[in-house]
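Service request form, structural biology core

Requester: graduate student, group of Dr. S.
Request type: structure prediction, single chain
Budget code: on file
Notes: please return the result as structure tokens.

Sequence provided:
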Amino acid sequence: MSQRPIYLDCHSTTPIDERVLEAMMPYFTRYFGNSSSATHIYGWESEAAVQKARETIADAINCHPEAIIFTSGATEANNLAIKGIAEAYFNKGQHIITVQTEHQAVLDPCHYLETLGFEITFLPVQKNGLIDLDQLEKAIRPETILLSVMAANNEIGVIQPLAKIGQICHDHKVLFHSDAAQAIGKIPLDVQTMNLDVMSVTAHKVYGPKGIGALYVRRRNPRVRLVAQLHGGGQEKGIRAGTLYTPQIVGFAKAVELALEEIESEGKRQSQLRDHLWHQLSQLDGIHLNGHPTQRLPGNLNISVEKVDGSALLLGLQSTVAISSGSACSSMGTTPSHVLLALGHGDYLAYASLRFGLGRFTSTQDIKQVSASTMNTIKSLRQAII
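Core staff response, request fulfilled:
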């Protein structure tokens, strides 16, 4: 059997940690009840597990457990937040602000709302991927109802200053939403100090199962109103209908719990490995670091490479390392990364980009092999052009 490539695509998804899977298994078999079944022990067992998980996730972001609404993932949570607020606050205003480098799970709902008459301001970013806070504040109008800014970018790893953004929103009485799918368990998140009103999270970016996420919805100061986007069973206080997937919810909570236990040590370890990889690759000419050099996720390295064909670069590396050139949700497309274009790259350089996503199971030896293979591939492609 041939050796599988080294996995460095942890922004796309992560493997389930065995400790997470172990916590989930009893809820597929022994404790299989529907958590909405209030008349017998099978339902009570599942309901207790869901409540415990809700408390764990709430503690992780410093909110009340009842402020956590379970969804199928961050995409659904983003849609619920953006479209749900747009409908609920329609009479107050129809202006929403977001950022050009957001995930499509934010951009697409915003484009959809444009077809209904909403006006969306798509803020540009600076060359380092950070938004200009003065520009943000100037974009706010009396009819602005919502600002959506992701906590950490899924391609370039840039961490936005959420606390400062939240203060601006609080001062102007504008609701603040953040897609924190990439951030949960990797950087500290506190919805109170960051003045976050709604926040989307998911499990599969943090060694939990796919198909489960959550939306934090502020309950006071202010109490955020949402119009449900799924109707049918009254679950989650009528905000999100559908039978709760108890094993997935248990796994989500366990994944978050483990990540927080290791957040400092693992962050330091991944940062050191990432910096070593960048040090090696940057010895070649024409290698560009995309995003802020330090204000980024510990496991993220995104580069663009001059004088190579982007498709040939990925093809040359695929037997050695599993990586992507951008978001997994758009990697099958034929257009260059909208994130890299927003940084000011031309199409050719945006195509010739690599996103390295280091994770919990990435070793020093992995990085040594990947750096050597990447450098050799780049050199070979450049020599072929000559």
